[in-house]
Amino acid sequence: MYVPEKVLTNAELEKRIDTSDEWILTRTGISERRIARKDESSSVLGAHAARAALADAGLSPSDVDVIIVCTSTPDVLFPATACFVQREIGANNAAAFDVSAVCSGFVYGLSIAEQYIKSGRYRHVLLIGAEVNSRIVDWEDRSTCILFGDGAGAVVLSREEADRPRGVLSTHIYSDGTLSDLIRVPGGIGRDGFSGGAIDPRQYCIHMMGNQTFKVAVKRMADVSQEALAFNGLSTEDVSLMVPHQANQRIIDAVGERLGVPGDKVYVNINKYGNTSAASIPIALCEAREAGRVHPEDVLLLGVVGAGLTWGAAVIRW
Ligand code: UT7
């Protein structure tokens, strides 16, 4: 994982907008978030995380067959941010492309990587979630600007022979385009083209119907998590650690309650980073592992929900 050095605390936000540390903490569980420097784009953050993941896996960049970057804050419209990461780390033998599923990005990317590995098509897939949400936040909108942060996380998925299923056991992804208005960045290029006129910066910021999103998020994440466990003949008692998307502490608590997973089996780091969108699960996974919360043979349950509306879950035997 890699997060920018600059920390933006709730106390600092109190000085900029009409909010309070107490409101943010009790409604979201967030105390602070990281903010990227001007020269730190998603590919820069992603490349840092990628190098760390490759070193941890004992692989060199030239071993990588495919680079998938999950991001909703790409460096530019094209080429893909994954191509910039490729250039940055020198993964010269890889194919590279981006996945756009916003906060669900990592589990969507995982489902693609899973198919490449299980089919035998590729040996090593580098999967990255990287975001600079601070660039698309409306810093005058107190209902959204308190939520988001920047960061990146990466994993390497490799094919190996094993006596019994290990690694990603299954992924389950869904979307419902009729809910596309819940969270969106309205500005773009494909719908209206570029008129050459004045651009309204707010069109390039996150718009969110927070309350409605909250309700569907809890139900979808809980339902798909149940489905993922049942698909593998597992129950919530078999879960060693749940690593949910870090959007709101209250969403995480409500999902855990619905599933019957006790709090001490849920990894939460939203307090330090806020919602880092596609980067949130790989950052949480990395910290959980470094904290000694992930052991061989553990069953991990990942759950996500994001704009689209998209949602999904994955079950991993570590
Ligand atoms: O990652 C993808 C998915 N995203 C999410 O899952 C986000 C889901 N939604 C949420 O996390 C929550 O809906 C929020 C944290 C965004 C908002 O919490 P809420 O409990 O749903 O609050 P609300 O939007 O219903 O607003 C309640 C009140 C309002 O005041 P009034 O109208 O009751 O007087 C807001 O104006 O809280 C007010 N408010 C704030 N007050 C202080 C909204 N933002 C703030 C703020 N500071 N930052």
Description:
With 318 residues, the chain is of the alpha/beta class. The chain has 2 domains: 6-158, Peroxisomal Thiolase, Chain A, domain 1 (3-Layer(aba) Sandwich); 167-188 and 198-317, Thiolase/Chalcone synthase (Peroxisomal Thiolase, Chain A, domain 1), CATH 3.40.47.10. Helices cover 34% and strands 22% of the residues. It is built from 10 helices and 12 strands. It has helices spanning 10-16, 21-28, 42-57, 81-89, 105-119, 142-145, 210-231, 249-259, 270-273, 280-290; strands spanning 6-9, 32-35, 66-70, 95-99, 124-132, 150-158, 167-175, 183-184, 207-208, 241-244, 299-306, 310-317. The strands form 4 sheets. The protein has a 4-stranded mixed sheet with strand order 4-3-5-6, with helices on both faces. Strands 7-12-11-10 form a 4-stranded mixed sheet, sandwiched between helices. A two-stranded antiparallel ribbon has the order 1-2. Strand 3, helix 4 and strand 4 form a beta-alpha-beta unit. The radius of gyration is 19 Å and the shape is globular. Oxa(dethia)-CoA (UT7) binds at residues 19, 23-24, 27-28, 103, 142-143, 146, 183, 210-211, 213-214, 217, 247-248, 251, 275, 305-306.
Number of helices: 10
**CATH architecture group name of the largest domain:** 3-Layer(aba) Sandwich
Ligands in the structure?
Answer: oxa(dethia)-CoA
Radius of gyration: 19 Å
| Series of secondary-structure elements, N-terminal to C-terminal | EHHEHEHEHEHEEEEHEHHHEE
CATH topology assignment of the largest domain? Peroxisomal Thiolase, Chain A, domain 1
End-to-end distance: 18 Å
Question: Which strands sit side by side, in order, in the main sheet?
Answer: 4-3-5-6
Q: Sketch the major β-sheet.
A: 4 strands, mixed
Under CATH at level 1, the class of the largest domain stands as: Alpha Beta
How does the overall form come out from the CA principal axes? globular
- The unreliable regions are none
Mean pLDDT: 96
Helix content: 25-40%
Count of separate structural domains: 2
